[in-house]
Write the structure tokens for this entry.
Amino acid sequence: MLYHLHIRDLVIVRSVELDFRPGMTMLSGETGAGKSILIDALGLALGDRADSGQIREGAERAEVNAAFDLTRLPDARAWLTEHEWDADGECLLRRVVSRQGRSKAYINGHPVPLQNLQELGDRLVSIHGQHAHHALLKNERQRELLDDYASHGGLLEDTARSFRRWQKALRELEQLQQAAEARRDRLDLLSYQVAELDALDLRPDEWNELASRQQLLANAEQLKLVCDELHHVLYEDERGNVDQLLGHCLERISPYQELHPTLHDAAQMLESAQIQAREAAIELRDYGDNLDWNPADLAELDKRLGQIHELARKHRIGPEELPDLLQQMHEELAQLKGEDLTTSTLAVETAQHRTAYFEAAGRLSDSRQRAAKALAKAVTKEIQGLGMPKGRVEIQLEAMPPERANAHGQEQIALLVSANPGQSAQALAKVASGGELSRISLAIQVVTAATGRTPTLIFDEVDTGIGGGVAEIVGRLLRRLGQHRQVFCVSHLPQVAAQAHQHLRVAKRHDRNGTQTRIEPLAEDERVSEIARMLGGLDITDHTLAHAREMLERAAQAGA
């Protein structure tokens, strides 16, 4: 609730500091005294537009400070905590308007954008009046009132949770589907390439083996000639071969090999050379004899190598890299097929979440329908006692198409009012009379007081167009509302003023420094005088004072 307000240099207010209590607070004063100054000041603190024309003449800036106790306001505390501006259950709003037209806003000492001030302000104060911002005109607020009145918080949570799950799955599904065409193209290409490489059936290291064999077969004929030639030179040439020459050399050196170690070593080497030459000749003969050279084999081998080389060229890699590429393609192919499976599974899950949402939203709609009838009936009863005997209230639930469904449900909620006989019910925002709007708002607030969210309510011109018994009913309703929430009321009717728990008088003073507006809390005897003034104008008699005192006593007894 609002417990302190400081206004400085605003319009014709030099400086005012006020402390407030729970219950109903009345603001009264003579015409032109500036009764709306408190509402204007609070409006600035809550984020209303500002201009330099609101600054008191002679001052450089205007400033408003509003302090709130958030002990019983978990919504506002949670909002402050979320923005890291919490201050142990208290909230200080500060607004400064300079002569240059600049405006600064603060929440608990933190400079903030005006939008933040407005968001928090909607959680703290609701101003009801012909010329003021009215939260009840918003469809969102009307929906909240109905939901609060219905007390179906669990259904709201189920609906919102189901909606979030549905939307999350839907976003993921859409992302997969957007990439589906490119994925299908890639899948088709990979499938073709994998089939091509699988058909090649290239073993690891096969390329090197085939290349070596191809070189061998390509030189087989020449190798056969070389092997035969060398075998002949080493062992078979009758005119003289390497074996014979080495044998002759060994015969010549053998008789002398014992004469010196060097000769002995030379003889050993000649003997070893002769043995190795014979073995080489045998190896070359056997290799040449066993060399299997078939032109058809070479042609087949060349064909195989050509296939391998062509695929390697197509993929722009070396032939020896093809087996690794095939393995990578198999893995990617499996992944893409898995994504298709994921898309199919996610599509099923999305459909399930959608069904769950509409089932939850359907249960919420049923509860809203029942609550709407009860709320409309209760509010209609209240407004008919407030000078609108033929007035009626309807709460319309208009189903939205599935694509417009949201976390709050699947219907648009509108509060419709008919103020006069024969007049069709219209949206609350289209009600012509400011006084009727104020009284309708009052009726709604009284009916929903136990479940309402906004702790502080301000009613401006709530008594326009009424008087007598209706005025007293309005006063009693405001007092009753004050049992649940903090209520401020600007009124010129004594029947309303007498019902207040505390009374503020707005007065205009003239001195050598100019004109100033003062706002003063009234003691009990001062309240009697003020209500007497409201009853009888400037000519206040003993009878008027007695009547005022009687009204106060009767209000106190009725509210006890």
